[in-house]
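subagent[fold] <- orchestrator: predict structure for attached chain, return C-alpha cells only, no commentary.
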Amino acid sequence: MSEGIIGNLTAVLYYMFFVISGIIIMFRLLNGQKLSIMFKCLLGSVFGTLEFQWIPIIFAFFMDFTVRAHICALVIQVLVFILVILKTNGGHGFVNTYKKPMEWKRFLWENPASIIIFASFVIFAYCLNTHTILLNSDGSLHTGQATYSDMNMHIGFITSIAKQHTFPPEYSIYPGVKLAYPFLSDSISSSLYLLGASLRVAYIIPMLVAVMQVFGGFYCFIKFWFKKGSVAFVAFILFFYDGGFGFIHFLNKVNFSKNFTEFYFTPTSIGDYNYRWAQIIANMLIPQRATLFGWAVLFPLLAFLYYAKENRSIKSFLIAGIMAAGLPMIHTHSFLALGIICAVWLFWDMYKEKESYLLLKLAGIIWVVFFFLLRMYNDKTGLIEKNGFIIMIAGLGIIAVLFVKEIVSCFKNSTIKSYIQTWGVFLIPVILFAFPQLLFWTFGQASGDGFLRSHFNWSNTNDNYFIFYLKNIGITFLIFFPAWVSAKKKELQTASPMLLIFFIAELVVFQPNEYDNNKLLFVAFVFMCGIVSDFVIKLFKKNWNIILKGALAVSLLFVGVFSSGMTIARECVSDYELYSKAQVDATEYIEKNTDERAVFLTGDNHNNAVAALTGRSIVCGADTFLCYHGINTVERKSEVANMYADPVGNKELYKKYNVSYIFVSDVETDEFQINFEGLGQIAEKVYDAQNVVIYKCNEL
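subagent[fold] -> orchestrator:
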C-alpha cells in the first residue's frame, strides 16, 4: 500500500506527460483562435486528462487493465503528439494581455477570483490530505466526515481495477456483475496505482488537478458569458461557498458546538430541519469523485462551447464534441446536463422571434409558481409524485414540437447549413463515441428497478416549494427573481437551460437515490449564480451611498456564506478511524500471500478493509453502495449469513461464489452467528492476530 519514491515518481510523470502534451496539442489545434493562454492551458489539461483516462481503457479491452495496455497508450499519445506538432502551425494565435512580468497587479485587479480560487484550492487540498487514509500514530487509517462513506467504494474500485486487471471490470463488492458505475473517475487513479504509486498518491494527485479544472472552468465560463471578472468573482463565491439559512439553527451555543463534534450536523445538511442543499466543496467535490471529474470536463466545456457558438468556430465545435464524448463513463449526470444545455442553446440559436424576451422573463417566475402549485396539489393528493414522468414527457413533447418547428423554419430560409456545420459537427463525435458507452454500460443498469421513475420535488420532505429552496439556497435564491427579470435577453437565453434542468429533475429521478438528482440541480445552480452575480455587480456600480453599499455587501456576504463556512470548518477538523490497525495488518498479509483475484467471504460493512485496501473481491458489499446502483442484495446477504452459520452445510454456496478465503474480525462476529468449528472443517486457519482470523478454504 505504500510504494516507494520511484514508483510514485514514475506514475506521476506518466500522468503529467499526458496532461502537458494535452496542453501543447490544444495550443496547436486552437492556433488562430482568440483565446487566452490560461484558457488554452485549462482546456489542454482537460484534453490530456481525457486521453489519460480513455486511451488505456481502449487497449484494456484487448489486453486487460495491465502495464502493457498503458505502455501502448503512451506510445499512441506520443504518436498523436508528434503528428499534431508536424501537421499544425506553431504560431501564437492567443490573447495575452499580460505581457510584462510586473503586470500581476493588473491581472489580480481584473481577475479578483484568482485569489479566492487559490484559497479554495488550499482548503480542498488540506481536507483531501487529512481525509485520504491518513496513517495514525497507532497504525490505523483515518479519514474525515465527508469521505467516511464514499471513499471506501472509490478506493475499492481503484484497487480492484488495478490489482485484478480484468476488463471490463466487475463490482469487487458484488462479483459477477459488470461495473456500470462511471468508473473512469476511479480508473484514472487505478492507472497511477498500477504504475507504482502509493494508494494515497494515486488517489490524491488526479483530484488536485481536477479541482483546479473545476474552479478554472467555472470562472472562465462566467467570465466568457458576462465579460467581467467581477461577476465571475461573485459567482464563484455564491456557487462554491453556497449556503442557505441553516446557520440560524446554530446561533445558540449548544448547536454551534455540535457543528464541530457531531456527525453530519452542519447548517447545510440537517435533515430534521429539511436542509438538504450540500456544501459544494466539502460535500460534493471532496467525497464524490465522479462529480469532481465530471465537472472538471463539464465546466471548461461550457466555456468552450459558449466561445464556439459566439464565434461560429467549426474547429472549436468539433474539439468540444470529442471531449464531450468522453463524459458518460466519467459522470453520466454531467453528460445529461450538458445535453440539456446544448439543446436549449441550439434552440435559441435558431429562434429569432422578438417576443422571446418577454417569454423568457416570465419563465423564471412561472417556474417557481408552477412548482409551488404542484407542491400544494401533491401534498393533498399525491398525484404529482405518481405522475411526474408523464408531466415531464408532456412538457418535453411541447418543447420538441417547438424545436421541430424551428428546424423546419431553418430549412425554409436556407440557414440549416450553418447549424449543421456547427452544432452538427459537435454532435457527430458524441453519437459515434458517447452512445456506445451508454449502450454497453449505462442503459443496462438504468433499465433496472428504481432508476428512471417519477419523483416530485427532489428531497423536500415537508416545506412548500418556495420556502424549501429559499432556506436551502439562501440569499441567492431570493435575489434570483429581480435578477432574472432585469437581465438582458442574451443573458437569459444563456441561463435558460437552468429552467429545463429544474423541470426535469423535479419530476423524475435517474437513479435509486433521489438525492443524487442534486448533481443535475447544481449544474442549474451555475446559471442561477451567474445571473444573480451580474445583478449584484450592476447594483453596486450604481451611484448611491458608499457606507450603505459596504454595509449591504458585508451583510450579503455573511448571510450568503456563513452556513457554508461552518460546514467547511467542520470538515477541516473532522477525524474518524476508517480502518483499525488490526484490519490494516491483516490486509498487508492478504496482499502478500493471496492471489489478486481471490474472493473473500467477509461482512458487508461499508468500510470493508479487504475490499478497499487489497483490491480483492468479496461476496457481498454494503447496501449503501450496491442498492443505490440498482443491485438487489437481499438473497446474497442471506447466503453470506448462512455460509458463516453453517459452513459445512453450505459448501455449494462457497463453490457458487468461488470463495478462497474467509475473513473473521469483530465486524463479522457482531454481524453474523459464526460457526468456528464448521469453518475449521472446510478451511485452514492461515492468519490469527489482533482478533482477526483468516481461513483458507480447502478444495470443496
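orchestrator: received. Logging for downstream: The chain has a mean pLDDT of 93. Residues 59 and 69 are 5 Å apart (CA to CA).
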